[in-house]
Amino acid sequence: MDAQAWLAERIPPVNAALERWLPGEDAPPARLHAAMRHLVFPGGKRLRPALALAAAEAVGGPSAAALPMAVAVELIHIYSLIHDDLPCMDDDVERRGRPTVHVAFDEATAVLAGDALQSLAFQVLLSEAEPVAGALAARELAAAVGAAGLVGGQADDLAPDPGAAGVEHVLSIHARKTAALMRAAVVGGARLAGAQDERLALLADVGEKVGVAFQIADDCLDAEDEDGCSLVALEGVEPARARAEALLDDVLAGLEGAGESAEPLRALARFAVRREV
Amino acid sequence: MDAQAWLAERIPPVNAALERWLPGEDAPPARLHAAMRHLVFPGGKRLRPALALAAAEAVGGPSAAALPMAVAVELIHIYSLIHDDLPCMDDDVERRGRPTVHVAFDEATAVLAGDALQSLAFQVLLSEAEPVAGALAARELAAAVGAAGLVGGQADDLAPDPGAAGVEHVLSIHARKTAALMRAAVVGGARLAGAQDERLALLADVGEKVGVAFQIADDCLDAEDEDGCSLVALEGVEPARARAEALLDDVLAGLEGAGESAEPLRALARFAVRREV
Questions:
Q1: What interface predicted TM-score (ipTM) does this complex get?
Q2: For the residues of chain A, what is the DSSP string, one character each?
Q3: The pTM is what?
């Protein structure tokens, strides 16, 4: 399949929905609204929304059913980037070639913009999705991004020298900080497309492994500016790359019986692990 | 009715549910968990949970039906206090006689604790409430605390001299920063107890007015350390107090036909406006 063509068709509705839900820069409080939009547009790879849409197709649904999940996971992702960039966290001044939110605006506005984006994620999901499946997906999303998931992973990542605790601890940080949201994207996307529990359990495993493999691959790409909390720092680039490939093999084996409709999900898994930029 | 006896019976189950949902300080990441708990226990007046429970009783339900909403609004309230206290916001070092979260822990942990408490609010509500009503209440909560509500009010409150824009602007900040969450508490509590749309519209108005009146009364109590964004600063204590009393009159008139079961809600409205500490 032509992954680029698939993305070129599926991502514009995600961007249109984000545009529809993000409050306008012409309405007050304009500075807050502008800060909320700063990293959403033009945005990055939209990998998490793509995973939600591909999961919906993998279970035989139309990707459009998963659109509320796609928007929600992107809003959560952007909120987490804004807060991670803060001076008290990673203190990053630039992202994707532009100033980070606290640099372009100010620190208070960056905290508030992240806070509002988190609320908006739940608002979109609970407003646009089919009610019962939407509520379940929102509940799973809330669990994935809280203290047991994304936020807990970031807290552990900020500790002094988290890599010193060994490979299992680093993998646990990846599983929470990066993979929990991707897992929620895949499970939620499939849920909104009507998937039943057995398929969802398989897809949860797929989402989690894609997420961990993505983080390992990301660290391999960034091997020069290593921060310590990575398999690259602990084991070197080649063993880390081998682990990511092994996870990808597991993912593709898990999706073996899923047929042609799972091809976009397979393609995204390959892209997450083998991308070169 | 004996308001103290009512509270003494209704609040312990809220505290027990908070204890059940907050992750333990003995489990990792322990520092994050301790920071999440810091302002929750022993906690303050639990006014927002009480409003949710009283609203459930006002529509003829048992207050226990509203427990998930009571927990959710308290978690949101605590998250907003933690973020408001940050150095980049109000820069407060003490709250309720104890160090604020970023002082007791550190700034990064305070940002993350607030973030995780927000997620947890939605997780509790979507896990413990009856699914359809819970999803509606969660959607309303998300809208109430985002850019159009609590966060937007805080953003406007942080602007230089917000009081200069006049009484209407200050009232709009109160309505968003303070009243939106109280309104969501009242509406959500009643919703979980099975109230229908007509009652909910009346209670939304009640919740909003109680919230604005509470904020005005709060500013009257704090008249010495005035920050500019208050009716007290614009009009003086007596006219501000008169506005709060007028809002209370409206609330009590709105609840006139609501019978004996609305007595706790009336008592909380009076307490919100007339409390002396």
A1: 0.97
A2: --HHHHHHHHHHHHHHHHHHHSPPTTSSSHHHHHHHHHTTSS-S--HHHHHHHHHHHHTT--GGGGHHHHHHHHHHHHHHHHHHHSTTTT---EETTEE-HHHHS-HHHHHHHHHHHHHHHHHHHHHHS-HHHHHHHHHHHHHHHSTTTHHHHHHHHHSS-GGGG-HHHHHHHHIIIIIHHHHHHHHHHHHHTT--HHHHHHHHHHHHHHHHHHHHHHHHHTGGG--SSSHHHHH-HHHHHHHHHHHHHHHHHHTGGG-GGGHHHHHHHHHHHH---
A3: 0.98
